[in-house]
């Protein structure tokens, strides 16, 4: 190709690319679209002689990218944008869901921790009361045991005194019986009452 043909190709390509890319400026622009737009714009013809082999390669590359963009059509572009919007919305929803789940888990853990602390506090209070009651009961038990031991001691003392009195009375009665028997022996008389059951 000559330089004249190159300029014709460039001139022919430039108007079609700008008209085909104009609708893309209305949609959200991505980095790839910006790069593609920049590649399709041809530089102004310079006064210097351009290396023909390099220029042809650039123009052919630009032409294939333009054909890719224009070949998809607006419907496919719209569906791709809609798909991207849908994916973006879904990822936002998923992130929100994860955030809410994490909040709910943290809230539940905090409440469980608070409940455990409350339970432990109440349990400790009740155990202290129980310990105080047990101490009081042990003290009362000790006092009652002491009272009962004192009563048992008094009872034992009374029983010992009564045993002593009974022993003393028995000794007196034995002595009296011996004296009376000696008297009867000395006088030779028989006692009026023989044994309590015979008399």
Automatic annotation (TrEMBL):
Residues 37-84 form the Remorin N-terminal domain. Residues 123-150 form a coiled coil. The keyword Coiled coil applies. Residues 1-52 are annotated as: Disordered. Residues 1-11 have a biased composition (Basic and acidic residues). Residues 88-193 form the Remorin C-terminal domain. It comes from the Eukaryota. Keywords: Coiled coil. The keyword Coiled coil applies. InterPro entries: Remorin_C, Remorin_N. PANTHER family: OS02G0117200 PROTEIN, REMORIN 1.4. Belongs to the remorin family. This is Remorin C-terminal domain-containing protein. It comes from Papaver somniferum (Opium poppy).
